[in-house]
Amino acid sequence: MATKAASPNVANVTAGHRTSSRTIALMIIGLALILVAPFLIYPVFVMKVLCFALFAAAFNLLLGYVGLLSFGHAAFFGGAAYITAHAIKQWGYPPELAILLGTGFAAVMGVVFGYVAIKRQGIYFAMITMALAQMFYFFCLQAPFTGGEDGIQGVPRGKLFGFIDLSNSLNMYYFVAAVFIIGFLFIWRVVHSPFGSILKAIRENEQRAVSLGYRVNRYKLGAFVISAALAGLAGSVKAIVFQLASLTDVGFQMSGEVVLMTLLGGIGTLMGPVVGAVLVVSLENYLATSSLPVPVVIGSIFVICVLLFRRGIVGEFNAWMDRKRG
Amino acid sequence: MVTVFGISLPALMGQLLIGLINGSFYAMLSLGLAVIFGMLRVINFAHGAQYMLGAFFAWFLLRYAGIGFWPALVLAPLGVALVGVVIEKVLLSRIYNLDHLYGLLLTFGLALVIEGLFRHWYGTSGQPYSIPSTFQGAFNLGFMILPKYRAFVIVASVIVCLTTWLLIEKTKFGAYLRAATENPTLVQAFGVNVPRLLTLTYAIGAGLAGLAGVLAAPVYQVSPLMGQNIVIIVFAVVVIGGMGSIMGAVVTGYVLGLVEGLTKVFYPEASSTVIFVIMVLVLLVRPAGLFGKE
């Protein structure tokens, strides 16, 4: 988010550089957790968490590091899911190629959506992305290949690279984990690259970035496309895990959900979206068996986060660590 | 039978009428959004939920108190405006000094809560609300049949939009409002109670949405999801019109409703996406919107 909201995050980012040993320690712990998780928790649940964590991390690249709130990221997530599911089920593509196709499709969509949306800033950007995603939703509702209300069901998982059988749940799990780790490290690399620094400069003061000679719109579009492609990667993998691509994946509630994960975990922090995804997916799993209406709970968390908890869990944790250090 | 481009005239007029009705609601809702945004700099995502509340309040009044359409046309919007006062006082007033995006996130959460509750209580199927007895039946205009109630909705929405426009452009209250939009600190220094002005503005915007909801109740069914679908379309309308001008929002609303109706006649597959396509085209040619100043 723009200047006022994001300024605490700047401290986080610089603090991140100073305490890189802590970051590395946390990453090793995280990696270990991911590796042992399927033996402790139901693997499909962890896979769902990982897909959404990658989705939220991709979204956060845009909101947290460029200050652009996209309210239409479901279009990339769900669009890629449809393409991947269709490519496997109807064309008999192997999973790796179908995922590549889905991700590529999301990237192309990102170019188109991004080109239109970056013509306006702030609130307008959010409304435009939302409207574009809604347009895509109606397209998916009517297009013959998406299967309308039913979606594309029973997508075979197939054999990765021709020899790794993904119908085995552990094989599937470690593939998803690998995709997540690669995606996450890629985002980490982007954020800490010169390109990422320019993105943060745009977030902090767009006019100044322009006056320094940066073609701001190119950087914004670049970030948008990367974010869309990674969201698509998450959607493609999700379609294989659940063997399903449906309208839920492209609906605006899905766009809202990824905003919530990022907000709850901490906008502009690398770990925030991951923590947010763990919490929101767990919460939804829990609510599915209770009689509480899910949107009411999700909406209430939104309101509470905006009013009291804008830095998110990881943001608050970082601030607390910094205070403790003095 | 008279035909236009191979479409029979009554069918064409029928779709145009539906378009104009939809346009009336787009106009009233984008008007409310523009009024709220102009003053509070908040994009009110809960606008759809407030529209739905208006329809439900009218239905409650009829079902539990036997109060009919005409009193409901006043009482239900007042009820929604009151809800708006509470929302503004308790929630929105705390985030004015933050980035405007937080306003969108807060009202998005609010919309989820309100619509989720009504969905939980009343399911997704709609409740019927009958047309008031005064407007049963239809006018036969020779080239088309015009149901009386639909004619009333169009006239009523034009009156509502004009009244709101006059209120903001021609009255003292409107002058305060416009001045406070330009420079709230200065207006406060002149002794105008700006926080109260903000509350009032939000209440008016919410009330407008509620009024549109009551008018919509006999046309569409009273359903918890009725606002969810319309609010994103209204966002697109607002982007197309540009939020700078109240008149712009209203005119764009009507015109886009008609365009949508025409699309239904000539290329029905695109009728649900045509407004978004127009939004893209407008953004490519005139990023500030048709009536926007930048």
In summary, what is this structure?
The complex is a heterodimer of chains A (326) and B (294). Chain A has 326 residues and is an all-alpha fold. Helices cover 76% and strands 1% of the residues of chain A.
Which word captures the global form of chain A? globular
- Please, what is the average pLDDT of chain B? 90
Structural class computed from helices and strand pairing of chain B: mainly alpha
Q: What can be said about the biggest beta sheet of chain A?
A: 2 strands, antiparallel
Question: Greatest contact pair?
Answer: A-B, 44 and 43 residues
The percent range for strand residues of chain B is: under 5%
Strand order of the largest sheet of chain B: 1-2
Alpha-carbon distance between the two ends of chain A: 26 Å
Written as H for each helix and E for each strand, in order along the chain, the element string of chain B is: EEHHHHEEHHHHHHH
Poorly predicted tracts of residues of chain B: none
Distance between the termini of chain B: 49 Å
Helical residues, percent of chain A: over 70%
Uncertain stretches of chain A = 1-17
Described by its quaternary structure, the protein is: heterodimer
What's the total count of β strands of chain B? 4
Number of helices of chain A: 14
> Over all CA atoms, what is the radius of gyration of chain B?
19 Å
Give the % helix of chain B. over 70%
Membrane topology (chain A): Multi-pass membrane protein
Keywords (chain A): Cell membrane, Membrane, Transmembrane, Transmembrane helix
Pfam families (chain A): BPD_transp_2 (PF02653)
Organism (chain A): Camelimonas lactis
Structure description:
The complex is a heterodimer of chains A (326) and B (294). Chain A is mostly helical. Chain A has one domain (3-252). Chain A is built from 14 helices and two strands, in the order H-H-H-H-H-H-E-E-H-H-H-H-H-H-H-H. A two-stranded antiparallel ribbon of chain A has the order 1-2. In chain A, helix 1 crosses helix 14 (312-325). The longest helix of chain A is centred in the last third of the chain and has 27 residues, at 216-242. Chain B is mainly α and 294 residues long. Chain B has helices at 9-40, 47-65, 69-90, 101-122, 148-170, 172-182, 184-189, 194-216, 226-241, 246-266, 274-285; strands at residues 3-4, 7-8, 138-140, 145-147. In chain B, the strands form two sheets. A two-stranded antiparallel ribbon of chain B has the order 1-2. The longest helix of chain B is centred in the first third of the chain and has 32 residues, at 9-40. Chain B is globular and about 65 Å long. The model of chain B has no long low-confidence stretch (mean pLDDT 90). The interface between A and B is large, with 44 and 43 residues. Chain B: Belongs to the binding-protein-dependent transport system permease family. LivHM subfamily.
